[in-house]
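Predict fold of DUF4321 domain-containing protein; 90 aa.
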Amino acid sequence: MRGAKSNGYGMFILFLLTGAVFGGILGEVISHSDIAAGFAPYLVKTFLVLDVPPVTINLYVIRFMAGFALQPNLISILGMVVAFLLYRRL
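Predicted 3D structure, encoded as tokens:
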């Protein structure tokens, strides 16, 4: 029964992040490969989705800098789709 077992949102986010990271790593490997030299630039082209510029908090003893940028490529998006499909099978 599918409804009786719930993995929760945390596991879903973990699957998506893992798929995106593995997809990004695979994209980097493909970009440096001679086999996929013809179409590799299209697969590893990044798309800027979210960009939060760095914010600096100076406490005079410690300085914190934090920022966030989300720039997926096509392979990492494909990795997220595969991770979603694997999550659905659990």
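The helical segments are 8-31, 40-43, 74-89.
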